């Protein structure tokens, strides 16, 4: 991955320090140089410069894995959501090494689900957790430490009856508030070292759509292309982190409404409720709701979960482009 730090690519510390003085810290920075430039900046011979560029290039290349190795790792490929029916449908839980998207209407509980997953990740492996830290990137100021601890105590009262365990869980969830597209991208590109230092086993981006939809008016010329390029860079970085550390990455998304041609031509408008149109066609074929950010983003997502209202207290979680009920209720 081009954003990998040179230290992580196996470059000697001494050379890393020399290059850092020239603002060369990532594989991309180094590989953008010619062998002659590397010679001058790193104080290396021509042969050493070639070898350095070759080794860094190899470190960035995707690692090869055989089907046999993948099969042998199958038991460690999922992170349990603790929801039996959802885990069953996902064949074990949230897949590691991939991006899982949680989408749904505002206020339906996407952030609550992310906080619950954060609690689960900090639990011991014997309880189905990851015994790890969590990187939580909040773009909507929706994260609540009080709610996180309430959920932990409510869901696992026996385990968290010891106050020290509650404090330990709170200390393992590392929150970053990023409120612009550039801040989010910069954070993601620097996240590799944070994951290592925090001992993180789960990365959450809540939400991917919030800042993008505020900053890019796609009705203006060129904005759609710029937005697609930004989302592509974010997705590439998240996929690299997921694969490099074999961890689940969870992002939340919003929904958008599309009118059918018949509805649009007759200038009909209607405010859809996610319960009425849970990701699929509505009665009369007037329109449908779907995850925001378009097809370009949807192709970057490996697993899509749809959270929707069942009633005022209960929620449903569905899997796939068209919502089908999987759970009678989702308790947070």
From TrEMBL:
A Gene Ontology BP annotation from the UniProt entry: DNA repair
Q: In terms of domain of life, where is this protein from?
A: Eukaryota
Print the keywords alphabetically.
ATP-binding, DNA damage, DNA recombination, DNA repair, DNA-binding, Nucleotide-binding, Nucleus
Enumerate the spans annotated as RecA family profile domain: 75-255
What Gene Ontology cellular component terms go with this record? nucleus
Localization, UniProt: Nucleus
Which GO terms label this protein's molecular function in UniProt? ATP binding; DNA binding
State whether it acts alone or in a complex, and with which partners, per the record. Part of the BCDX2 complex consisting of RAD51B, RAD51C, RAD51D and XRCC2; the complex has a ring-like structure arranged into a flat disc around a central channel. The BCDX2 subcomplex RAD51B:RAD51C interacts with RAD51. Interacts with SWSAP1; involved in homologous recombination repair. Interacts with HELQ.
**Function, please?**
Involved in the homologous recombination repair (HRR) pathway of double-stranded DNA breaks arising during DNA replication or induced by DNA-damaging agents. May promote the assembly of presynaptic RAD51 nucleoprotein filaments. Binds single-stranded DNA and double-stranded DNA and has DNA-dependent ATPase activity. Part of the RAD51 paralog protein complex BCDX2 which acts in the BRCA1-BRCA2-dependent HR pathway. Upon DNA damage, BCDX2 acts downstream of BRCA2 recruitment and upstream of RAD51 recruitment.
Q: Which family does it belong to?
A: Belongs to the RecA family. RAD51 subfamily.
PANTHER family according to UniProt: DNA REPAIR PROTEIN RAD51 HOMOLOG 2
Q: What is this protein called?
A: DNA repair protein RAD51 homolog 2
Q: What is the lineage of its organism?
A: Eukaryota, Metazoa, Chordata, Craniata, Vertebrata
């Amino acid at each position: 991955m081009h954003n990998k730090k040179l230290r992580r690519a196996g470059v000697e510390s001494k050379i890393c320090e020399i290059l850092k003085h020239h603002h060369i810290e990532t594989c991309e920075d180094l590989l953008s140089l010619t062998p002659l430039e590397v010679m001058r900046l790193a104080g290396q011979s021509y042969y050493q410069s070639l070898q350095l560029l070759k080794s860094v290039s190899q470190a960035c290349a995707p690692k090869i894995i055989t089907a046999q190795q993948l099969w042998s790792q199958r038991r460690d490929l999922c992170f349990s959501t603790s929801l039996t029916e959802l885990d069953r449908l996902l064949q074990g839980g949230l897949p590691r090494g991939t991006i899982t998207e949680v989408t749904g209407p505002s206020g339906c509980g996407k952030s609550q689900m992310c906080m619950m997953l954060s609690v689960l990740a900090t639990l011991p492996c014997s309880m189905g957790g990851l015994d790890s830290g969590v990187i939580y990137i909040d773009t909507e100021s929706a994260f609540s430490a009080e709610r996180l601890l309430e959920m932990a105590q409510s869901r696992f009262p026996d385990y968290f009856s010891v106050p020290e365990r509650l404090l330990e869980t709170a200390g393992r969830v590392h929150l970053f508030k990023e409120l612009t597209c550039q801040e989010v991208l910069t954070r993601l590109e620097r996240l590799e070292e944070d994951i290592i230092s925090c001992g993180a086993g789960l990365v959450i981006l809540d939400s991917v759509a919030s800042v993008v939809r505020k900053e890019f008016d796609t009705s203006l010329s060129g904005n759609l292309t710029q937005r697609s390029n930004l989302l592509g860079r974010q997705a590439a970085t998240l996929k690299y982190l997921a694969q490099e550390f074999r961890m689940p990455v969870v992002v939340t998304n919003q929904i958008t409404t599309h009118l059918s041609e018949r509805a649009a031509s007759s200038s009909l408008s209607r405010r859809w409720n996610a319960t009425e149109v849970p990701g699929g066609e509505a009665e009369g074929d007037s329109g449908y709701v779907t995850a925001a950010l378009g097809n370009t983003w949807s192709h970057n997502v490996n697993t899509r979960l749809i959270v929707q209202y069942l009633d005022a207290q209960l929620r449903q979680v569905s899997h796939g482009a068209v919502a089908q009920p999987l759970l009678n209720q989702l308790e947070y």
